[in-house]
Design brief:
heterodimer, A: 113 residues, mainly beta, 0% helix, B: 113 residues
Chain lengths: 113, 113
C-alpha cells in the first residue's frame, strides 16, 4: 500500500542552524501539507502546497520557514535559523484531492539544542 | 476560530467492550471530519473520513458519526481489542482556502486484556 515517507526520522541541531526535512508523498497525490506536534500538544497545521505554490499557511509559518518541491517526488520543509521552540515532531501529509483524506508520514522528530 | 475538543482525555476499558469516543467542534462550517489513530512516538493513521454531507461512515469495527449542526462527532469501536490501544485524534477540515485540518487533543485509549 502506498505511504508517505519522511527522512530523517530524528534530527538534533544547534539553535541557529538550518535544517531541511524531507518527505516523499504518495505518488499520485497533488496536495501536500506540513504539520507539527510539540510534545504533549495538539497537532498544528503549518502549510499546504498545491501546483508548486503555497495554498495556505498558518501564523507559525513565518519567514524562517519555506517549502519546496524540488523534483517530481520530494517535498521539503526548511527552517532557516532554528529556535528552541521549533523542537517538535514534524509530519508531512498528502492527499489526492484538495478536500480528501490526508495521509500522514511517520514524522521527523526535531530537537533544537 | 475553530476549536476542537475531545472528551475524555483518557479512557481505560476491558477487552471486548464497545466504546464511544467524542469529538466536538465550535464552528459548523466544516468540509469534512477525519479520525486518526496515533501510536506512541509514531505518525497518524487515517481511520475514517466523513464528508459534511454524510451522517456516518463505517470501516470494520469502527463507526464514525457526524452531526454538523450540533458540532459533534463520535467514533464507536465495537468489541475492543488490546491492539486498539492508542491515541485517537479527530480533525475537522475547514471550508475556506485549501483544506487544513484542525485537530483535537486526542483521547488516549487503553484496552486491558
Amino acid at each position: 500500500e502506498p505511504e508517505v515517507t519522511q527522512t530523517p526520522s530524528h534530527q538534533v541541531t544547534q539553535m541557529g542552524q538550518e535544517v531541511i526535512l524531507r518527505c516523499v508523498p504518495i505518488s499520485n497525490h497533488l496536495y501536500f501539507y506540513w504539520y507539527r506536534q510539540i510534545l504533549g500538544q495538539k497537532v498544528e497545521f503549518l502549510v499546504s502546497f498545491y501546483n508548486n505554490e503555497i495554498s495556505e499557511k498558518s501564523e507559525i509559518f513565518d519567514d524562517q520557514f519555506s517549502v519546496e518541491r524540488p523534483d517530481g517526488s520530494n517535498f521539503t520543509l526548511k527552517i532557516r535559523s532554528t529556535k528552541l521552540e521549533d523542537s517538535a515532531m514534524y509530519f508531512c501529509a498528502s492527499s489526492e484531492q484538495g478536500f480528501g483524506t490526508q495521509y500522514f508520514g511517520p514524522g521527523t522528530r526535531l530537537l533544537v539544542l | 476560530k475553530q476549536e476542537v475538543t475531545q472528551i475524555p482525555a483518557a479512557l481505560s476499558v476491558p477487552e471486548g467492550e464497545n466504546l464511544v469516543l467524542n469529538c466536538s467542534f465550535t464552528d459548523s462550517a466544516i468540509y469534512n471530519l477525519q479520525w486518526f489513530r496515533q501510536d506512541p512516538g509514531k505518525g497518524l493513521t487515517s481511520l475514517l473520513l466523513i464528508q459534511s454531507s454524510q451522517r456516518e461512515q463505517t470501516s470494520g469495527r469502527l463507526n464514525a458519526s457526524l452531526d454538523k449542526s450540533s458540532g459533534r462527532s463520535t467514533l464507536y469501536i465495537a468489541a475492543s481489542q488490546p491492539g486498539d490501544s492508542a491515541t485517537y485524534l479527530c480533525a475537522v477540515g475547514l471550508i475556506q482556502g485549501a483544506q487544513k485540518l484542525v485537530f483535537g487533543q486526542g483521547t488516549r485509549l487503553t484496552i486491558n486484556p
